[in-house]
Amino acid sequence: MPSAVTVVARSYPDRIIGIENQLPWHLGTDLKNFKALTQDHAIIMGRKTFESIGKPLPRRVNIVLSREELEDTENLKWARNPETALLLADYYSICMAKNQFFVIGGENIYGIFSKYINGIFLTDVFTGPINGDAKFDYEFPPNEWSFRYEREFRKSDVDDFDFRISYLVRRKREHRQRFISEFKASNPIFEKRWDEMVNGVSPGKESEIEQQQLNFIQSL
Ligand SMILES: NC(=O)c1ccc[n+]([C@@H]2O[C@H](COP(=O)([O-])OP(=O)(O)OC[C@H]3O[C@@H](n4cnc5c(N)ncnc54)[C@H](OP(=O)(O)O)[C@@H]3O)[C@@H](O)[C@H]2O)c1
């Protein structure tokens, strides 16, 4: 099953990630890294983060969580709840032969998915104390998380502050299979209807079935 990985940039020392639905800094190099990391993958974000970005990010399947329906386009997929977002992320990751997808914020969405996360690309931005209204207030205790690498970057023409990117992985990976029973319990018709659709496939009808599966995921 694809792994859920978080990407976040937060201020040091206050752990601020946003103010008035914007990033509190411009870090061109960090954005370039973000693009390289996430391109050709599925990304999950909250509606407010989506609005602050202003458009679906190209060459990515943008899965946006909102309680209000959003119109799907080729690379924008609406998820009405976290389970749907995970199913869509798994589905598209498998279709794109990727073993991970990214949870890209904001505060609310990081909170919802934190229990599923196996890796995190954490950018510490050395701003000193700043104002903000969104935080990423998590610790990564060394007995639970191991550092895979750290890289320091200096303030430059394209980066407002010095910053450091760390990659951490959970020592004991979360296997989301454990959560499927929770999912089925909240959606008892899931297994039956999915099996009916998959078992009903006849040659030449695969794309029809794929569309039915997607419609079904989105109707949950
Ligand atoms: N520094 C960084 O790395 C970084 C990254 C991303 C974002 N940010 C910042 O974070 C801030 C935004 O964070 P935020 O917490 O305010 O908003 P958010 O997490 O981006 O989006 C919250 C929205 O997600 C939807 N949602 C949440 N839980 C849901 C659920 N269970 N089911 C369905 N939909 C659900 C709701 O949309 P509806 O109201 O439409 O129902 C909710 O209003 C901004 O300042 C942004 O710039 C920073």
List keywords for this structure.
220 residues, alpha/beta, 33% helix, eight-stranded mixed beta sheet, Dihydrofolate Reductase, subunit A, binds NADP nicotinamide-adenine-dinucleotide phosphate
Give a verbal description of the structure.
With 220 residues, the protein is an alpha/beta fold. It folds into 2 domains: 177 residues, Dihydrofolate Reductase, subunit A (3-Layer(aba) Sandwich); 34 residues, no CATH class. The protein has 7 helices and 10 strands. The strands form 2 sheets. The chain has an 8-stranded mixed sheet with strand order 5-4-3-6-1-7-10-9, with helices on both faces. A two-stranded antiparallel sheet has the order 2-8. Helix 2 links the parallel strand 3 and strand 4. The longest helix is centred in the middle third of the chain and has 14 residues. The radius of gyration is 19 Å and the shape is globular. The mean pLDDT is 89. Bound molecules: NADP nicotinamide-adenine-dinucleotide phosphate. The site of NADP nicotinamide-adenine-dinucleotide phosphate has 28 residues, from strand 1, strand 2, strand 3, helix 2 and helix 4.
